[in-house]
Amino acid sequence: MVEQGDVASGLVLIPLQEKALEAVLVSLAAKSSAALALLATRTGHYIASRGSRHDVDTAALASLVAADLAASTQITDLVDTSEAHTMILREGERYTMLIAEAGASMVLLVVASRDVPLGWIRMLVQGAAQRMAEITRPAPGRHAPAMASVLPGGEFADLVGQAIDDLWTD
Amino acid sequence: MYINYARREITVKVVYYGPALGGKTTNLIQIHDHVAGSQRSELISLKTAEDRTLFFDFLELQLGKIGGLTPRAQLYTVPGQARYEASRRLVLRGADGVVFVADSQPDRQEENLESWLGMRRHLSSYGIDSQGFPLVVQLNKRDLPGAVGVDVFRSTLSLNGDAPLFEAVAVDGRGVRESLRAIMERVVVRLRREISASAA
Fold first, then answer.
1. How high is the ipTM of this complex?
2. In chain A, domain spans
3. Which of B11, B177, B186 sits opposite A164 (nearest CB)?
């Protein structure tokens, strides 16, 4: 199914949605004292993050979080326990890590100290994921701006090709 | 793909697909080694103890500012070994383009074909018709003795004459940049077409 606001299978965020998502993320990070709260698309594209950890490769992390959720969802399908609203929990010595679906298009990661009660984090993550899903849910009258007007014309593909050549060093 | 209007960012996903030991990971290693650290992420590899790809390899490229936009390319490989069929399908999810990395050795042609058909099957399961989908074929290991002819290879995969095909020796970097450039150009052309269609 192609959702409104999507181009093919992708996620398109308009400024209003991005602001609303960031507000939820900020609130989640503050309430859970998260070392990291990260939002990515289900296909592994980084959207935003908050928290005290600033030394992580967010692009790589987003791809791994999406993959983790995808693999976990596939595992539940294979053992015939298919359920909606998947949440993955990892309990380490120092950190608790939760990965949760945030609607059909996004995935949320929260890393918090083991000192923070698990039930509290779980409740916060569930609430945040639900609000994020609502923010990106197709709504009548919510239209993306005309990206076609900001995308350069036919030469854009050539410029991207040139950019690849320019990146290359021998 | 992911589009953020406020930041004028476009991120696309390209998957390197193909049979086991065909050179998919080698492509990403070469790209990693030829792009400055400031314009790429680290290369992430989820691999087995035997150094074979278990789930995927990942590398992000930042292409700088182009026409006021900030395009990024996320490159993934799939695990080639037969047993990882389910993982291959997962990695293909949301792909905006595919580089199919084939092996030139004559005794690997059956595996090329199996992988090719598997890829088309998985794309189809996501509602993607591989006709018109951005796809580039890289015929790798051209330096090996007895490498199959390009025409024979095209015939094996039933590729028509228009399908972009690049001969490569990925381990030396030959054909790697050309394949990447070609797939990115095709992805962008399709992106513009889809955006125009969705705006209409």
1. 0.89
2. 15-145
3. B177
Instruction: State whether CATH 3.40.50.300 applies to domain B2-199.
Output: yes
DSSP string over A89-116:
EEE-SSEEEEEEEETTTEEEEEEEETTS
Residues of B in contact with A150 (CB under 8 A): 8, 68-69
pLDDT at A20 over 50: yes
Do B117 and B100 touch, CB atoms closer than 8 A?
no
**Residue B176: closest C-alpha in chain A:** A168
Which pLDDT tens digit goes with each residue over A113-142?
999 999 999 999 999 999 999 999 876 655
CA–CA separation, A38 and A159 (whole Å):
31
pLDDT (0 to 100) of residue A155: 86
Tell me: pLDDT of B119 over 60: yes
Q: Which residues of A touch B56 (CB under 8 A)?
A: 63, 67
B178 confidence band (pLDDT: 50, 70, 90): very high
pTM: 0.89
CB contact (8 A) between residue B3 and residue A63 = no
- How far does chain B reach from its first CA to its final CA, in angstroms? 19
Instruction: Kindly report the nearest CA distance between residue B199 and chain A, in angstroms.
Output: 6
Whether pLDDT at A151 is above 80: no
> Domain boundaries in chain B?
2-199
Helix, strand, coil shares of chain B, percent, nearest 5, are: 40, 30, 30
Asked if the Cβ–Cβ distance from A63 to B192 is below 8 Å, we say no
pLDDT at B7: 87
Tell me how far apart the alpha carbons of residues A148 and A146 are, in angstroms, rounded to a whole number.
5
Cβ contact A45–B2 (<8 Å) = yes
Contact across the interface for B1 and A45, Cβ inside 8 Å: yes
Cβ contacts (< 8 Å) between B177 and chain A: which residues? 164-165, 168
The CATH topology of domain A15-145 is: Beta-Lactamase (3.30.450)
